[in-house]
Amino acid sequence: MLAAARLDGFEAGSDDGRMDESVDGAESLRLKLAASRDSRKQVPPGLREEAVAFAKAEHALGARYRSIAMTLGLKPDTLMRWCRARREPKKFARVVMKRAARAELTVHGPAGTRIEQLSVKQAAELLRALSCSD
């Protein structure tokens, strides 16, 4: 479909050589893929990589993967699976955790009493001072 749409829009003597090369490349790649499927075996890895490279280049120019797959004579799911398999795995990034310079506590008392910005040591002293045990 993609090749047909492009052929309709451009004359044989088109000034845009890249477009003609793309159509010729799509046709030759479609023929290679069709020939490899006659044997009912998996498509050779080199041919898959060629199809993926072509699909990514066409997609970068604005074509949809569905139309690219139809142009190559593939099912869209097959082409998408090949493209996903060639992606680089996502890498983990190290995250630096920052600790607060000083842990601050807030003590809530009866009748809305609130004491803020206490260190752990200060909160412990406050609780000891307020305790009823002698």
Question: Secondary-structure blueprint of this entry?
Answer:
Blueprint: H1 2-9, H2 17-37, H3 45-60, H4 65-72, H5 76-85, E1 105-108, E2 114-118, H6 120-130
Antiparallel strand pairs: 1-2
Structure summary:
With 134 residues, the chain is mainly α. The protein contains six helices and two strands, in the order H-H-H-H-H-E-E-H.
Tally of discrete structural domains: 2
Biggest β-sheet strands, sense, barrel: 2 strands, antiparallel
For the terminal residues, how far apart are their CA atoms?
Answer: 91 Å
Fraction in helix: 55-70%
Could you report the average pLDDT, rounded to the nearest whole number? 77
How large is the radius of gyration? 33 Å
Would you write up a description of this structure?
This protein is mainly alpha-helical. It has helices at residues 2-9, 17-37, 45-60, 65-72, 76-85, 120-130; strands spanning 105-108, 114-118. The chain folds into two domains: 2-85, no CATH class; 101-134, no CATH class. Strands 1-2 form a two-stranded antiparallel ribbon. A hairpin with a 5-residue loop joins strand 1 and strand 2. Helix 1 runs antiparallel to helix 2 (17-37) and helix 4 packs across helix 5 (76-85). The longest helix is centred in the N-terminal third of the chain and has 21 residues, at 17-37. The model is unreliable at 1-17 (pLDDT under 50).
